[in-house]
Fold these 3 entries.
Entry 1:
Amino acid sequence: MSDTLVVGFDGTDGARAALDEALALAKDLGGQIHLVFAFEAPRLGGELRDLDEAIAERAREVLEQGTHHAAAAGAQVTTEHRKSDPAEALIATAGERDARYIVVGSYGERPLKSALVGSTPTPLLHLSSARCSSCARPNRLVDMRAVVLTKHGDYSVLQVQDRPSPPMKPGHVRIKVHAAV
């Protein structure tokens, strides 16, 4: 088994957390890092060539960002773009490179949600023979937009304001609205 760490890297906060974890592991183990961007484009009609080219361009950008981030930490990495399901691509890459670890980011989905909408860490844990590490994205206070009622009246008195996200407390519920009509 080599000291290679295969890192799923798509440029998200979770992927950056995974790369940071892999950099720390590589330093401790004296290992090498191999970044993999994997995406399986849907094959349902349309301009597939344009989509493939756009994904390839995005992969180049994201892998370059990861390479620069690793270089700033004093590490050198190799990179790869695969056109396949991310979990399958990471497992295959780990097998080809006889990797010691696969490191990926996670959004901390609950098991049911990850099964319904898809999640890379879940199949990795079940199918990979390499050790797997799933890193949660850093908890950052993200600004939110709030609809604020400043005085009594009809809908015209409502104002949309940017606010810092309040800390979660027991019994609180946070609802994320993507769009409303």
Entry 2:
Amino acid sequence: MSHRVNIQYSIELDDLADETLRLLQRSYAKLETAVSQIELPAQERVLSLNTLRSIDDTRQELARIDQAFSDISNIINGYVRFTTADADTQGGEPIDASDLERKLEQFKHSVAHVDEDPA
């Protein structure tokens, strides 16, 4: 039984699409290989240990492929969040520190009045 480990490495943002495509192509190739190796047994041998082993091997390989697809999904989700956050910060208004301080004082004042209210 093999063990999985999480690794982390950095690449240039410009290389992310190529690296993601490489991982995706590798996963699709493994999926095609797994599917091409499936052989249906004859009816008289379907209820056998060999069939059971074959099914188990296929399931395990599909689980490894599914994990690879999950990793690729996480990469793409991270990229989408990164680009969305980047667009949000670039398009927003700059924060005025004095305006922020004024709003904070107003909030403190309103909270103080709530604490004093015996309701």
Entry 3:
Amino acid sequence: MNTTRTFAIVTAVLALAIGTPLLVVAAQRTEPELIGERWYRGDGLGYNVTLTLADDGTYDARWSGCLGIYGRSKGMWVDQGFEIALAPEFEEGSMIGHLRSLRRLKIQNTEVLVPPEDIERVLKADATMKSRGWIPFEAFRRDSELSF
């Protein structure tokens, strides 16, 4: 029996024994390309959200604009493969209820994170912006890949 299958069986047995919280822990993957990265989404004016995913499973998000910081959110994050689940422990201002999950997508060969409610808008915008090499502002991009 290979190691992956053994791990899956042990995880399933433990999940049945102690309940579903174990499944959340087992689902967390520490993707090196996500951890420690600062992600940005915004229009460069009044809507600018930065998100940092730390290697200890915590995140920090801030919404800022020309008048200062409009809101903050901190909590835990879990990588579920195609989706990042965010569980806030603290929220204030405009960040209250703002981010709960992000889908991992590839747009123009760039990995982006997009809230599920914005996926359709991002894909439509990408179809028109692709020729210019622009990525829609609704998508979180790595801070290191930005060019203003």
